[in-house]
Amino acid sequence: MPAYRLYQRRLRRQLASAPLPHHVAMILDGNRRWARLAGLESAAHGHRAGADKILEFAGWVDDLGIPVITLYLLSTDNLTGRPDEELEALFRIIGDLATSLARRWKVQHVGTATGLPPALESALTEAERASASRSGLHINLAVGYGGRTEIADAMRSIVAAHAAEGGTLDELADRLTPALIEQHLYTGGQPDPDLVIRTSGEQRLSDFMLWQSAHSEFYFVEALGPDLREVDFLRALRAYGQRQRRYGG
Predict the structure, then answer these.
(1) Domain check: are 87 and 178 in the same one?
(2) Deepest in the core among 50, 90, 130, 205, taking most CB within 10 A?
(3) What distance in Å separates the CA atoms of residue 70 and residue 138, rounded to the nearest whole number?
(4) Active-site residue 78, yes or no?
(5) In a domain? residue 118
(6) Which residue out of 29, 31, 192, 194 is catalytically annotated?
(7) Between 100 and 163, whose confidence is greater?
(8) Are residues 131 and 36 in the same domain?
(9) What is the pLDDT of residue 5?
């Protein structure tokens, strides 16, 4: 529509001189609700539409030169809280999505392989391998991900490394700092998300990037995941650019 395209161009012009985030985290929520409202026979239709939207979203991000995004695709809670039939379809969809994203961008799996089927684990590993040398946009795929589990895994990694060096508990207590924990997170070495976006009108983190989002800005979109438009994303970036970021209160 001409009016939509005109508005989209205006938003892009407004962003030309605005600060953009270096890392955007996305909770693309509402796929199942979208399928139900559309009268489709299974949640898989919604998950497939959500995957198609994520491919679009990555293109929008890349066009703007934002270097890192993290996409929340499957939580550890989902692994035990969804019907087997839905999960099996979702595993295939996520595997296909990882393969598609890796054809253009660098992909990294952030999460645990525990509870993932071998086919999906293999697809994520191959996507990482095939895209390892790519420059430009870096895409974290949060699959089998839980923020609390990530922090617990980071602590286990620190303890194991310290024990392997022959260190004592007292020495570990002295060394244990937020900076050390950050190094052992799934996203170690990456910038924390400046902006976290969630679709579907829900306003909660759902165990997503609990450590990394300590100072993030949040933006909630009413649209269900598959209905997200580029103008919705541009509005989120405009709102981010207009905020005065404060750390500590």
Answers:
(1) no
(2) 50
(3) 9
(4) yes
(5) yes
(6) 29
(7) 100
(8) yes
(9) 85
